[in-house]
Amino acid sequence: MNMIEAAAVHVRFGDRVVLESVDLAVAEGEFHGVMGPNGAGKTTFFNVLTGRVKPNRGRVLLAGEDVTGLSPHRIAAKGIARSFQIMTLFDEFSARDNVMMGLPEFRARGHDIARAAAGDGRFAAKSSEALAAVGLADKGDIRAKDLSYGDRRALEIAVALAQAPRVLCLDEPTSGLGSDGVQRLAALIARLKRRLTIVAIEHDMEFLFSLADRISVIHWGQVVARGTPHELQQNEWVRRSNLGKFA
Amino acid sequence: MIVETKSSPDAARLVTPTMLVLWLVLATVPLWITRIGLYPYLGIEILIWSLYALAFNLVLGTAGLPSFGHGAYFGIGAYAFGLCQLEIVANLWICLIAAAAVAGLAGVLVALFISHRRGIYYAFMTIAFGQIFWTLAIKSHRITGGEDGLLKIKRLPADFGLVSFDLTDNVAFYYFVLAVFAVGTAALWRLVNSPYGRVVAAIRQSEVRASHLGYNVWLYKVAVFALSAAVSGFAGGLFAMAQLAAFPDVMSLHQSGYVVMMTLVGGGLVSFWGPVIGVFLFLTARDVIGALTNAWMLYFGLLFIAIVLFRPEGIAGAISAAVQQHSLGALRQRSTSAMRLLFGSGR
């Protein structure tokens, strides 16, 4: 069964067509990479999947349920978590509090004004678990804005993991990371594979080709090639394009 | 600019040591305020405006929403209190609840229109709605008394069933307002540190991130604005009692600006207590400098400019920085002494 599916997604901003007609079907537990040149429409497509942009045409299905055009908070509550190309954290909160905000249990208590948020052991334990998963176990009390760039990237993923998502959408997760950071992230993704359905936009082809089960190449607002990393390496279009030199 | 987000042990408490000390100090005010040339009514004003400023800071400091027409809700509360007393029932508790409810309802109506806006557009909309309410208060002469205000409002007794307290005397009323202030500060502290308060603070930092974590940002913005308006209205009800009248002036744009100045000067963006500091400074300056010159606002305006330029985190932020600096200095001194003890002077 496909965990997430997009069918003939079309998006235009005024006269400008950003996505012509994009199809995508990602099976449960699959790591699906999305690549393409700048301005190809990858992030817009992610925004459609996560509710930031409503498509003009087409549908998005989450485990068979139509979630097209739902607002981001409703899509998030249904189980699609995302990270951002430009890091978006609660900078003044500690790393632990950032993660706590992602917990579904905390979200369910979001309207509670009678109890204190601090001092609830359940939230602290679950937040620590998510932090440990990304290697930030000992940095829970540090404010997000005081963390190093690599740690902030890891925190973004920890926040997304805390949501206990069914689908994890990562928008250029290696962006700005050094080789050590990329290696750590690759190890984390490798651990998460099969447990989670992951869709990742990525420019680091080595990273993507070593981890992804399948890859879609988006160009001019449509999918121009799709397949396993091995299949893409044989693809004539990919070989001729700039992307081929990495594959 | 906005700092106070890291959970402190106090965040889990309903009543903090700071609160207790403040309440105790405030309880002594009637004993000495006349000796320093001031008067108990000033204390009443400071407490009421502090409650109002703390409510306002829910929107500005906690949620990061620039509301510049908040005087409207303070004034609506004052009128609702007076009209309830004069036209419906002369019961203190019912009239105070009416003040909060009517102001809260006005807040909901406004918030429904503006909560999808951000930044300057949000600010302009709050000003526009504030001006609408102010104009309504002036023009609805038969209901509000127009520019003359709603007069003959009484300080109703605080009736607890078995015992009833007469509040006509300023000192008695001061202690009543102090009790309300104590409950109000504890409730607002809990609200700010509750899961709801944390979500609102998160929305201030990133609406996009909050929405992608599953929070209905629009609804939270509506709710926090309405809550703030309701508490502002409650404070307005107390103000009507204090003044024995309700006037449209408190709803005007420049009076709405006062609460913004008080909150920013005090350090509401970095501290829960910032608005209280700002109110104290503003109203004391009005009376103390105002006794020397009519141009007291000029000096307060200069202070406001200086703080925005050199200490944008306000007085509370400056105090906090000084305390941290002092602690660091002391720590450095202790570690230097320890090093000397262990390794000698190095000569």
Give a verbal description of the structure.
In chain A, helix 3 crosses helix 5. Chain A has 247 residues and is of the alpha/beta class. Chain A is globular. By secondary structure, chain B is mainly alpha-helical. Chain B has one domain. Chain B contains 14 helices and two strands, in the order ααααααββαααααααα. Chain B has a two-stranded antiparallel ribbon. The N terminus of chain B is likely disordered. Chains A and B meet through helix 2, helix 3 and helix 4 of A and helix 7, helix 8, helix 9 and helix 10 of B.
Topology overview:
The complex is a heterodimer of chains A (247) and B (347).
Chain A: E1 2-13, E2 16-27, E3 31-35, H1 42-49, E4 57-62, E5 65-66, H2 72-78, E6 80-82, H3 95-102, H4 104-108, H5 121-133, H6 149-162, E7 167-171, H7 179-192, E8 197-201, H8 205-211, E9 214-219, E10 222-227, H9 229-234, H10 236-240
Helix pairs in contact in A: 3-5, 3-6, 5-6
Chain B: H1 17-32, H2 40-62, H3 71-88, H4 92-114, H5 119-139, H6 141-144, E1 158-159, E2 164-165, H7 170-193, H8 195-205, H9 207-212, H10 217-243, H11 253-266, H12 274-292, H13 296-310, H14 314-343
Antiparallel strand pairs in B: 1-2
Shape of chain B: globular
| Total number of strands of chain B | 2
Question: By helix and strand content of chain A, what is the structural category?
Answer: alpha/beta
Strand order of the largest sheet of chain B: 1-2
Q: Describe the biggest sheet of chain B?
A: 2 strands, antiparallel
Report the count of strand segments of chain A.
10
- How would you write the strand order of the largest sheet of chain A? 6-7-8-3-9-10
Count the helices of chain A. How many? 10
| Arithmetic mean pLDDT of chain A | 90
